Amino acid sequence: MTAVALTIAGSDSGGGAGIQADLKSFQELDTFGTSALTAVTAQNTLGVYKVQPIDPDIVIAQIDAVLKDFNIGAIKTGMLFSAEIIEAVADTLSSHPSIPLIIDPVMIAKGGEDLLQQSAVDTLKKKLIPLATLITPNIPEAEALANMEIQTETDIELAAKRMIELGADAVVIKGGHRNDHFAEDFFLSAAGENFYMRSPRINTKDTHGTGCTFSAAITAELAKGSRIQDAVVTAKQFIHAAIDDGLSIGHGHGPTNHAAYRNRAANRKDVELIGRY
Fold this sequence. Notes:
The protein is of the alpha/beta class. The protein has a single domain (3-275), classed as Ribokinase (UDP-N-acetylmuramoyl-L-alanine:D-glutamate ligase, 3-Layer(aba) Sandwich). It is 36% helix and 23% strand. It contains 9 helices and 10 strands. Helix 2 (56-69) runs parallel beside helix 3 and helix 7 (210-223) packs antiparallel against helix 8 (228-244). It is globular.
């Protein structure tokens, strides 16, 4: 049976992030992708020029249409933009608690533009995160959600605990924003299972859409029935390959190569696991 996943996110006209990155990732991991659009953005590798949110009623109509017809194995959210959209999505997804929900709390674009209104952060924390199977913030997003500054590994682990306390079943805090020789991500579940995933840091500016791609890869693996721990490790391998085998297109923060993981085939041992896995 073909696995099917749903992404609820914004459109990136540059093709490297958002709905476009999610559907490419789903396809590369043998999962059929469906979508519900939350916003249209005019953007490229140089930045975001304009954002037009979709009416919440239309967002929900898209979700309902997909859920009525497809056997959805997992759902991810990306750019949700406003409190109104977040609340509408949360109300709808609360009626489908058996479907794993991965939340990529998209807040800021690579160029620094806000992709989530400040007024929506509280709604995200109160309404949507309690429904999450997994939340995948980067360091700045984790700081906003945990209401603390993150500098050390101890800070990362405390921030993860705070997000579990918000109601998520598990969290992965991505370490790409830290300045060290590795890209190290921390996984924590509500049951206390925890481990780090470490890969060599790649010297490149072409990292547009990495968060979308990572969370989409997790979603695809969960849709196929993988354990959440296995799904996040595969996603780490997937995004490492996508960055390492970059496309070198665009004049700013270029997109990653979603085909790289498949093209590497057996050569995927780039991730070191540290802790209880």
